From TrEMBL:
Organism: Mycolicibacterium fluoranthenivorans
Source taxonomy: Bacteria, Bacillati, Actinomycetota, Actinomycetes, Mycobacteriales
Domain Phosphotyrosine protein phosphatase I, first and last residues per copy: 1-168
Pfam families with a match to the protein in the record: LMWPc
Family (UniProt): Belongs to the low molecular weight phosphotyrosine protein phosphatase family.
Alphabetized SUPFAM superfamilies for the sequence: Phosphotyrosine protein phosphatases I
Single GO term (MF): protein tyrosine phosphatase activity
Gene3D superfamilies according to UniProt: 3.40.50.2300
Protein name as it appears in the record: Low molecular weight phosphatase family protein
Length: 178
């Protein structure tokens, strides 16, 4: 199972979500969970922003070896679940890969649906989309240009949104008997 996270520059929010999800997946013994990220206007080839890397490290994540990349149709289409930081990012993904509609949500939407409705698996998440009507699900704000405490707050917000999604992934995995 592969989760793709998408933001703008792919140096702050989406790599934070990518690395925290990988950490949570490892903690929950989900060996088939892979995570990656990309940006709609990526700073291609760059490492994580220093403040984002510091905030990630403080949460137990590992920023080492990260390299930003640009979102492409191929990258978006290969994911089992695409989680974006904003509704605008979600729209960008769907412009590139409209067939990913049932698999593409904002991070906030997916977290809300997974926590509130506890779907049995990823396939059920899209069926819950009507429950978003009338709900206020905020985007994850861009910390670029802000101080270190803002980066820390954004990383903490991402970290709070991830556990229901990782639990959904755990439920989606078919474990062999025995």
């Amino acid at each position: 199972m592969h989760i793709l996270f998408v933001c703008t520059g792919n140096i702050c929010r989406s790599p934070t979500a990518e690395r925290l999800s990988a950490m949570l997946g490892a903690e929950r013994a989900l060996p088939d969970l892979t995570t990656s990220s990309a940006g709609t206007r990526a700073v291609i080839g760059h490492a994580m922003h220093a403040e984002a890397a510091t905030a990630l490290s403080a949460l137990g994540g590992d920023p080492s070896g990260f390299v930003a990349r640009h979102l492409t149709t191929r990258i978006a289409s290969a994911a089992d679940l695409v989680l974006t930081m904003t509704t605008a990012h979600r729209d960008s993904v769907l412009e590139l890969a409209p067939r990913q509609l049932r698999r593409t949500f904002t991070l906030g939407e997916a977290s809300f649906l997974a926590a509130e409705y506890e779907p049995a698996g990823l396939a059920d998440l899209a069926d819950l989309r009507p429950h978003l009507a009338g709900q206020r699900v905020d985007d994850i704000p861009d910390p670029m240009g802000q101080d270190a405490s803002y980066f820390t707050a954004v990383a903490a917000r991402i970290a709070r949104a991830l556990p229901p999604i990782i639990e959904l992934c755990r439920r989606s995995v078919t474990f062999p008997d025995g």
